[in-house]
Write a structure and sequence with these properties.
33% of the residues lie in helices and 22% in strands. The protein has 18 helices and 23 strands. The strands form 5 sheets. Strands 1, 2, 3, 4, 5, 6, 7, 8 and 9 form a 9-stranded mixed beta sheet that branches. Strands 10-11-14-12-13 form a 5-stranded mixed beta sheet, sandwiched between helices. Strand 18 (401-406) and strand 19 (409-414) form a beta hairpin. Helix 9 runs parallel beside helix 10 (311-329) and helix 15 runs antiparallel to helix 16. The chain binds adenosine-5'-diphosphate and magnesium ion (MG). Magnesium ion (MG) binds next to helix 2.
Length: 575
Amino acid sequence: MPIVRLDEATVRRIAAGEVVERPASVVKELVENALDAGARLIRVEVVAGGRELIRVQDDGCGIPADELLLAVERHTTSKLRRFEDLAHVLSYGFRGEALAAISAVSDFEIVSCIPGASSGARLRVRFGRPARVEPVGAAPGTVVTVRDLFATIPARRRFLRQDATEVAYIQRALAALALARPDVRFEFIVDGRIALATPGSGQLVDALAGVFGLETAAQIVPIEPVPHDEVTVTGAIGLPAVSRANRQTFFILVNQRWVESRTLVAAAEQAYHTLLMVGRYPIGVIAVQLPPERVDVNVHPTKREVRFADERAVAAAVHEAVRRTLLAHLPDQSPPSVAFRPLSPPAVQRRLLVADPTRAAPVMTRPDPEPLPVSPIEDSQTESGQRLPILRVLGQIRQAYIIAEGPDGMYLIDQHAAHERILLERLFEELATHGVEQQRLLEPLILELAPSQLEAFERYAGELACLGWEIEPFGGASVAVRAVPAVVQRSIERVLLAVLDELAAGGRGTTSLEQVAISTACHSAIRAGQELSLPEMRELIRQLEQCRAPLACGHGRPTVVHLSTEELERQFGRR
Ligand code: ADP
Ligand code: MG
């Protein structure tokens, strides 16, 4: 074929494909326009997954009647004048393509009225062909109605999924935008029913309640901002108890713009390490603020991806903010003790992390909510610097506690809790990689179970199998144990019965798999009352030093009590 210049209508339809992929992209573009127009209320309505109708109504600044025609042309914008402005744009839009693209592939109508005008104006554009602008009575603001999306592009239309799926995409986009702008009231109406509503109070908690529902929102905690050089991370993240099976409800905002960023999502997820089971994902919203010139928003047709001048620094800031927030909210279950308080895991974390020895009586007092120092994320092995320092084992007390010396004072390690933590991390690690290592029994072990144990076995059969327990019903209340997890080194019968008893009583952990893992680790671990040789203790401490979250066992009890040099001196009246 000879080379020809494509006609305008064809060019438009090709270009539209980049901006308008599905109903959710239409909604996103129109809502962003409303936000750019300073709207306080944005109402979005869809019918039949957006295929039949999408309507976005706002109370923003409106478009003057004599600019309506221009607004739907390509590359027309009120937000940018020169290319150089791009580095500083704070508006969502700047390419002037959305209205042109949407009106090229739908039966499109825009009604707009600027505040103070006696009447508004209406413009209809059917699949790229604009009619005349007509005066019409209208409230201040803009209403865009999109009907029969992609009706003239069968290929695109076929590509759309079921209504419910398209609605889910739209809902996700609106959730992100509503979380980005808690100061704006959002309403989303699907086939006549309200699917999402936020009050526009300006408070993120209110927007979270509108997006996630009150019950889930109660499990979402705010990130206290700690300004880094140029990056500030705020937002709110779900506690491990409200994880999900996918990443659909975790949002990244960069300068109030919703973006996809694998790197930042990974940085946040890493901070949940060992707190969430494999295959579970956190919920929440991470809002990154940085100078506009440190981020390029013009790398993707729908601005879904951005490029950072220093992505590693941003990722490190996100990781640190999430980790710090999680640590501050880990349950504190430490009982009071005689001589000095056992530290709750977060408190121990702080003691080990905050290198400033001038802080007063850290061991005796409650942890104060001060920020932790910045930690780089490139090395997940030193995650948040939360690991134990290198310890020198001195001996054992009451056949239960290992006494050791570290760079800052004395450490007492609960040998059972420590071993439990080590085995738990080994199980998690094996689960996440090649599967839990098993040890096959030479002969099956036949056990008679109590009714509650039998019920627990039936209820957790799948999870037990995942964790290496190969158990079969053996008639009546009996089971045959054919293989056990390799972490179970002795007294198989005692361990299994104790695991089943614990599961029957409800177990500990956020998922069934986690419950079985925690219970298996606990009952396989060495117990108090067992004498350990010095090499055995050294090996235990060495393994604990390598744990990612060494300071609490799977049940949340502390593994380590720390008496700082400063505290020792205070106790002996040297200070
Ligand atoms: P962009 O948002 O990139 O500028 P659009 O095609 O989305 O391009 O919109 C073109 C122009 O139309 C905008 O720059 C803005 O001036 C105007 N406009 C679009 N939607 C609205 C709205 N809801 N309220 C006020 N003005 C709007
Ligand atoms: Mg726009």
